[in-house]
Structure formats: structure tokens, C-alpha cells
Write a structure and sequence with these properties.
Number of domains: 1
Strand order of the largest sheet: 1-2-3-4-5
Largest sheet: 5 strands, antiparallel
Number of strands: 5
Oligomer: single chain
Shape: globular
Radius of gyration: 13 Å
Length: about 90
């Protein structure tokens, strides 16, 4: 039987993957940053937005055109309703 954390992780990851599929269409390919698999879930003119899940915790990462400063990984308090332009 799964623990609460494992169940939360699976549910969050499923939501992230569905959002990524809605954005990109096909089977999404994750990028790995800080040991977390991130899926592209939105974009605007200058950034791509990613969400990832680790140990039942949701994280976001925005990647801009410039690599300086490098993208940062931040913990999300709740699942965002809007991520860039979908």
C-alpha cells in the first residue's frame, strides 16, 4: 500500500504530465534540474515554464533566453492555475 506522500506525489505528477501534454501535445520529455524531473507546461515570449514533483512537493522553474542568472527551482505552495501562455 502506498504512503500518503507517495499518493500525493503520484497525483501531482499526473497533473503536471497532463498539463504538459495539453501544452506540447505529444508525450512530454522532462528536463532534470536539482534532481527533479521538470515538464514544460507553458511559455511566453521570453521564458519557458516548467513544473516538477519530488517527494510529493511541487516545484516550478522558469527558463529565460539568458542563462545569467541561471534558472532557479522554487517550491510551489499550490498548483498554479496559469503558467505562461498555454
Amino acid at each position: 500500500m502506498k504512503t500518503k506522500t507517495e499518493t500525493e506525489h503520484d497525483e501531482l505528477l499526473a497533473r503536471v504530465i497532463r498539463l504538459a501534454q495539453e501544452h506540447d501535445g505529444d508525450e512530454p520529455t522532462p528536463i532534470v534540474r536539482d534532481g527533479i524531473e521538470f515538464y514544460r507546461v507553458g511559455h511566453n515570449a521570453s521564458h519557458e515554464f516548467y513544473l516538477g514533483v519530488k517527494d510529493g512537493v511541487l516545484y516550478d522553474c522558469a527558463v529565460g533566453e539568458d542563462i545569467d542568472p541561471p534558472p532557479t527551482v522554487e517550491k510551489c505552495e499550490r498548483f498554479p492555475g496559469y503558467v505562461g501562455h498555454l
